[in-house]
Structure prediction request, 814 residues.
Amino acid sequence: MIETAKKAKEAAFRIANIDSKLKNNVISSLCTELEKRKNEIISENSIDLEKGKKKNLSSAILDRLKLDDKRIAGMVEGLRQIIALEDPIGEVIEERKLRSGIFLKKVRVPIGVILMIFEARPNVTIDSFALCFKAGNSVILKGGSDALHSNRILAKIIQEVLAKNKLPEECCQLVESHEAIDELLKLNEHIDLVIPRGGERLIKFVVEKSMIPVIMHYKGICHTYVDKDADIKNAVEICYNAKCQRPGVCNAMETLLVHKDVAKSFLPKLAERMSSVELRGCERTRGIIKAKPATKEDWNTEYLDLILSIKIVDSVDDAISHINKYGSKHSDAIVTEDKRAQENFLKRVDSSSVFVNCSTRFNDGFEYGLGAEIGISTQKLHARGPMGLRELTTYKYLLLGHGEIRK
Amino acid sequence: MIETAKKAKEAAFRIANIDSKLKNNVISSLCTELEKRKNEIISENSIDLEKGKKKNLSSAILDRLKLDDKRIAGMVEGLRQIIALEDPIGEVIEERKLRSGIFLKKVRVPIGVILMIFEARPNVTIDSFALCFKAGNSVILKGGSDALHSNRILAKIIQEVLAKNKLPEECCQLVESHEAIDELLKLNEHIDLVIPRGGERLIKFVVEKSMIPVIMHYKGICHTYVDKDADIKNAVEICYNAKCQRPGVCNAMETLLVHKDVAKSFLPKLAERMSSVELRGCERTRGIIKAKPATKEDWNTEYLDLILSIKIVDSVDDAISHINKYGSKHSDAIVTEDKRAQENFLKRVDSSSVFVNCSTRFNDGFEYGLGAEIGISTQKLHARGPMGLRELTTYKYLLLGHGEIRK
Prediction:
């Protein structure tokens, strides 16, 4: 693996300063090739699907694994959006003359080599390469073994496009064996960043083993808190949207918190609107609407499904405490017309995105105007929340002198 | 240790939103107390010094350990500079209306709990607390055991000042046992960031064991490259300053690279100017000036002393390769009048600060206008180069809606 990492580093040095036009040309050629070779891709993907069926993978996993005409068109559309994004490299973040007379420039530069570890979603291969590459980084991809054939053909197409453009193939390398991960995670001299995307076990494993800085894209246990001064009609629609518009994603609501003074008027309306959702409530909730009993386990669970846990709280402070205790620092919302409650919630909820009077589903790179994203970071260092092109860069200081020495 | 970490987290929530005036008052009271109690501090420090002498600690370590009137005045002066710095918390980094109608604000917030691990420099106790606190963070300090009595009295004074201002003492906790480090480094649910400062062994240990994000303040193997188009007189003074003005610090030059075409005219002048420095040269260097032979080991060594290794190279490209191979991504300089060589060097040297025609000694938070610094980061994620107040913060997104739901 050390050879893989060293080659990735060399490749990263080669592409750190190439111009935007060449980078966009490469991504554009990749679009053309994906469209031209879609039958080949679908045929390789069908090998993975066959194996997955034999292994009795769940239908949700098989669905994520599947590539068809529409999904390939979606990948191409994603690439076109990345082409349209401004190249972050070379941006002058700050510049000023120092008291010594030296002129300081803080400029945006690539990070270097990024290791992506992900599960059976072959589209991540294409997205990750394009985002890392446009930010001037080389990438080492370790995809889930269930997507092996799909990832192989996609990585092969990427490497052929790179070679055709006289760029090193090692800008994008696929690693296949699971055992390689252990070794890669120790190579902090050559790899600059690891991004694990997947289930709790994978993330914990990486955080424990890695000597390389890690940015987690961890689970989303997202809350909506309906305050005593909420507009009830708004609250019902915001909650319905946060839970039901796309329940399988990380910014969907998992737990609803309701102020005790508004529970009796709000909860029956909510239950009616959410007739398709399995409700699990605390004792007080179950005194008002029909719901299964919620246990402490429920406050810690990311359902990613049409299930909602509900808890009645005594105050906005209690809601904040619950969120800071059980949440995953992802996306949490308050519904209220009371400015002081809004401010209290905004200041004290320790999450990457805090919402007032709207759905948590808006936590998204496109919605925030960052363009395509590599994921939503749930940690605090370097990048927090949606992680786009700019978050795949670092900076350096350039100091332009005229013979200055320090006194 | 989990109790220590939990209390630090609670304390961090308490101080995350307190106003600048209160924070400055606390630091100002700390100045008063340090001055008032300096005899007590010096007396506790003398216990450490006695023990250190019995343990045969080197005179360099004993010197760093020592606190006297002048050093305490220096600590107070450092605190006054921190008071004068603008409070970074609450700064609106970006704001805009999104296409959904939601108003987005990206605001600067504290990181939370910071664990500082450092060696026998008691002044770090005071600096670290003040910087972390002004940025709204609580700090857990694990200082070197050789400074135990000094750190105890300083931490006690800090905690008394916090208590007097009705703030939780747990904003600043001192941890004494070395074994505690192992346990602390696993508490990634409660501690947000570790900053180790010290020798290679300490840093490697922390990087290997930590499940918490680490920002390293690692060694400085800094280079100056004298190009064929250098102004020779400037080059001699820049090199002399980079090596000799303060040889024991991380931004001092350790290796000098010289273009072959200029070696014969430059090196004798340099050797004359650096008569007090032990020179170690490659074979070609030793054909021109008197120097001990340099081995590969020398290219990897941070002397922190009046020793300089010298290598003659064939081109600016060779100089860049040497630096990217042996350097520590800290501070590297080129001396040349050739604009193309400057640009090549600035673009391709992978260090946090790259200098043209001036001394590497300028890599410093004060010189860069950041104010006091907690150190100079040699890694790429989150903070690179001098790490001041702003680098001790993160951000969150506030989304202010009016009932928006996602379609």
User: Anything to note?
Assistant: The CA atoms of residues 373 and 388 of chain A lie 4 Å apart. Chain A has a mean pLDDT of 95. The longest strand of chain A covers residues 393-404. Chain A touches chain B through 66 residues (CB under 8 Å).
